[in-house]
Amino acid sequence: MKYFTNPLVAVLLFIGFCPVFSQQIRPQDAELTNYQYPFEVHFLQFTSQKNNLKMAYMDVRPKASNGKTIMLLHGKNFNGAYWERTAKELSDKGFRIIIPDQIGFGKSSKPQNYQFSFSQLADNTKAILDELKIDKTIVLGHSMGGMVATRFTLLYPKRVEKLILENPIGLEDYKTFASYQTIDQAYQSELKNTAESYKKYQLTFYYDNKWKDEYQPWLDLIAGWTLHPDYPKVAWDAALTSDMIYNQPVCYEFKNIKVPTLLIIGTRDRTAIGKDRAPKELQPKMGQYQELGKKTQQQISGSKLVEIENVGHLPHIEVYDQFWKALYDFVK
To answer: Where does this protein have coiled-coil stretches (predicted)?
Structure first.
């Protein structure tokens, strides 16, 4: 790394080579009001569990439709915006793209008295399709979105044409490794998050200690939350959804999936919920995606597995071209 003693040169080079969003992490309110998504954002307003909620989603229409729809479901530390490149290319191929922000995430409501479950998130997601009168869709879920996509497929199999799971979490039952933490304990842990702690986590479990500029915007967004007075609201929902992931495994039900399924697995990924709470001798056994992908493929009848060697938790960010080839070969 080169260092510049002339501060003006350093500033000019910084401005010239760094994206605008990475020059400074800006505080973000609970619903990312001042952050512009890549496509127009719509809101579904509904009542759930005595909460008046709004669920954000993007609806990307192709210029020349092929008659098919793909729904893209985000992960826990992300929101729908990180699907921008995927959505643009799919739209160019004629697909209509639906990109929700789950309740508790992104631009959607952050209810403080809500029982989060994958079944509830799946039902909320179906409500968007119902509103748009979309009867059938291809479903792609990344990370936690893979657990939502799995539950959605199990609950509403007739609404799913194909299922794609990109480095989903929940390929193993974290309760069999890690001790339980209460929601209050999880909340206190979330309140301690900073840009530095988020980056350290992602470097450790996502990127194998190699940072690239294209990772920065997705760090900036969640780090921006920690700088805003709204952060306790975000942190509380993060604690609730962590509890949901820990207590509601989907791995025992993969055998019940009957729709055509593709697994896209970056084999370097080591993401595992609660790894820090597991006994030292069990920690190295958690999040072994090079093994979990194969195991899951065997459980889902007729499924296809595409392994991407030496790639971490976000193939569609880290090695987009390889991700795209696997995805488009399956959906075209």
So the answer is: none
Query: 79-103: per-residue pLDDT in tens?
Result: 999 999 999 999 999 999 999 999 9
Domain extent at residue 268:
35-178+250-331
Q: What's the pLDDT tens digit per position in 108-134?
A: 999 999 999 999 999 999 999 999 999
State the total domains in the chain.
Answer: 1
Nearest in space to 198 (alpha carbons), one of 166, 224, 172: 224
Helix or strand (DSSP H, E) at 45? strand 41-48
Q: Report if residue 325 sits inside a domain.
A: yes
> Which helix (DSSP H) or strand (DSSP E) does residue 73 occupy?
strand 69-73
Please say whether the dihedral angle defined by the alpha carbons of residues 101, 261, 329 and 132, taken in this order, is positive or negative. Answer: negative
Q: Whole-structure pTM over 0.70, yes or no?
A: yes
CA end-to-end distance (rounded Å), the chain: 43
Amino acid at 241: T
